[in-house]
Write a structure and sequence with these properties.
The protein is mainly alpha-helical. 73% of the residues lie in helices and 0% in strands. 56% of the residues are buried.
């Protein structure tokens, strides 16, 4: 692909990411409503949350391995369309089993998009990979900022079945994006490559990759947990779905604004500081959130939490890609997928305990402890460069070529 086509491709990916994560973000205010609509117990609700988190996150690793071997540009379309159809249908049924199937299918659709989209976005401006990833992630977080307010408002007005109207909007958005993405789909397909040898791929990088995974998972506990638990907290205090959605949108808007700040205000030399300082600053805000009432102070604090987390998340994704330059889809699936699955699993446990005991306030100090630990662990991250990774790239056998980037 010629350099002149790189920026249009990057903005196409960011715009598609916006629509994908808008669809995903519609779920945030709905978890308390699912308990009533589907008559779920605490354990059933957590199982469904785990199904959603696992399908939307951990499966990204599988899609990343598949994408490094085969041409997977088609996933940029089919995955999001499947997710849109399934999530728009969650209010049309009464069976928890059907809900689980819809959540699993939509999660897989969302997971299919992210490794391919992130790898292509990072390759658009390789000399400024963190900036490219910030633009890509800003699109997603803007979508997640719109999603909760949209779904909270439409469910307050029309009930869960009203979400079906989103199917028309989602498919229209993808139709409008089609001309912008035509250049991606018409590029010559890569020939299939040999299966990725994970043992060889991770050789010499085991400790840094594990450390990135742990840091990312700890950070995701707050990023994934705050919008869900603040929804349950406000629901327990009698707030309506629209109010829940607005507060959750403030969090996601903060994350998007943080990603934009990461793309425009900070330089590569700042990235090491960003990785440890931002989660450190967010710790006291997390502790205070459940005691701020339901007014503008809560709204601002939740938004500030998202802002600080949003500045650091794209930098961590970029760091992972620089750490594994010969397999960026797998690297992206670790920082954007597996870490979300592990962090989301811990959020599921916290949610279960909070529902079991009927108090949601203790979740937020737990989030603070996790972000503080993710800040402290950054001390041991090795230095990498956007141009030349400090760690040697894993050498593949002669009969196993490096996975080609799109």
């Amino acid at each position: 692909m010629k350099p002149a086509s790189m920026l249009p491709l990057l903005f196409f990916l960011a715009a598609t990411h916006l629509v994908v994560d808008l669809v995903a973000g519609t779920l945030n205010p709905l978890w308390p409503r699912f308990n009533d609509h589907y008559q779920l117990g605490a354990a059933e609700a957590v199982i469904l949350f785990v199904i959603w988190q696992g399908s939307a996150s951990v499966s990204q690793f599988v899609f990343g391995m598949y994408g490094d071997r085969f041409n997977t540009r088609w996933l940029l379309w089919t995955g999001p369309i499947v997710a849109t159809i399934c999530l728009s249908s969650v209010g049309l049924f009464q069976s928890p089993i059907i809900l689980g199937i819809l959540l699993a299918a939509s999660g897989l659709g969302i997971a299919a998009f992210h490794p391919e989209g992130a790898a292509l976005a990072g390759s658009c401006v390789p000399e400024h990979r963190s900036r490219a990833m910030s633009i890509f992630t800003v699109g997603g977080f803007i979508g997640q900022a719109i999603g909760p307010a949209y779904s909270g408002g439409i469910v307050t007005w029309l009930g869960l079945s009203g979400l079906a109207w989103g199917l028309l909007g989602g498919l229209l958005a993808f139709a409008l994006l089609l001309p912008l993405g035509r250049g991606v789909m018409t590029q010559p397909a890569r020939p299939p490559s040999a299966p990725v040898n994970l043992r060889v791929l991770f050789r010499g990088r085991e400790w840094p990759v594990l450390l990135v995974l742990v840091i990312g998972s700890l950070r995701i506990i707050a990023a994934a947990g705050v919008p869900v638990l603040v929804g349950f907290l406000l629901h327990s205090r009698g707030a309506c779905d629209f109010d829940l959605g607005l507060v959750q949108s403030a969090f996601m808007f903060g994350i998007g604004l943080g990603g934009l700040a990461s793309a425009t205000l900070f330089r590569p030399r700042h990235e090491g500081t960003i990785l440890w300082l931002c989660p450190l600053l967010v710790t006291p805000v997390l502790v205070a959130i459940p005691y701020l009432g339901e007014g503008w102070l809560l709204f601002a604090s939740v938004g500030l939490t998202g802002l600080l987390l949003g500045i650091s998340l794209p930098v961590l994704i970029s760091y992972g890609q620089q750490l594994m330059p010969d397999s960026q889809r797998i690297a992206s699936s670790i920082t954007m997928g597996v870490s979300w699955g592990l962090g989301g699993g811990i959020v599921s446990l916290i949610l279960y305990l909070c529902q079991l005991y009927g108090h949601f306030e203790p979740a937020f100090p737990a989030f603070a402890v996790a972000t503080l630990a993710s800040s402290a662990l950054c001390i041991w991250l090795p230095a990498v460069s956007a141009q030349q990774p400090a760690l040697p790239a894993a050498k593949l056998p002669a009969d196993q070529p490096h996975p080609a980037e799109a």
